[in-house]
Amino acid sequence: MKGLMSGKHPIIKTKQYLDQGIVLRDGVKIMTMHYGNYESNYESHSGIRKVVELNLSQFQHKNPDVQILVIKDLTPSPFFTFFLENGERFYIDVEGKNQVEILSQIQKVIGKPKELIEKESIAAEANPANFGPEFNRKCICEVQGQLPCSFVDDVWPILERKELKKNINLNPKKYVFGMEDEDT
């Protein structure tokens, strides 16, 4: 059918779904997910496989400064490794856990609390110095006392600008009276 999203799980491509992900703390720089498709331990890896399949895009969207690696078929037990800014690392063992248990454990251990996320968003929005597409002012020219944008007001004609350049002394040591000395 035309117009419908394609893929195995089309919901994971929507902006609303991506915005619901876990925000990791600022100190996290690298996150690795280790799991396998072993026939002997297939059930113990099913939770992390679901996380990789459904929530990896959320992690990438909500944490653009974190490098995320998926390492498959290298270890017999599934786990997460988090590398911090100060060089430390820690592991979260997820063997035998389902997707919801894994996500709640990550949120509890290394995720930012909801209150902190709300405070940061309020602090960013309330600052009147911010301008851009997501803020109240689109451009700095909208602030009182700033020069207007050139596309809003007309630029002076070329002849007037040339006259201004003649009368402005850009190097006062060389041109004392505003024009070149003929003696030197």
From TrEMBL:
GO terms for cellular component: mitochondrion; ribonucleoprotein complex; ribosome. GO terms for molecular function: structural constituent of ribosome. Gene3D superfamilies: Glutaredoxin. Pfam families: L51_S25_CI-B8. It is found in: Mitochondrion. Keywords: Mitochondrion, Ribonucleoprotein, Ribosomal protein. The keyword Mitochondrion applies. Residues 40-113 form the Ribosomal protein/NADH dehydrogenase domain. Belongs to the mitochondrion-specific ribosomal protein mS25 family. This is Small ribosomal subunit protein mS25. It comes from Ciona intestinalis (Transparent sea squirt). The lineage of its organism: Eukaryota, Metazoa, Chordata, Tunicata, Ascidiacea.
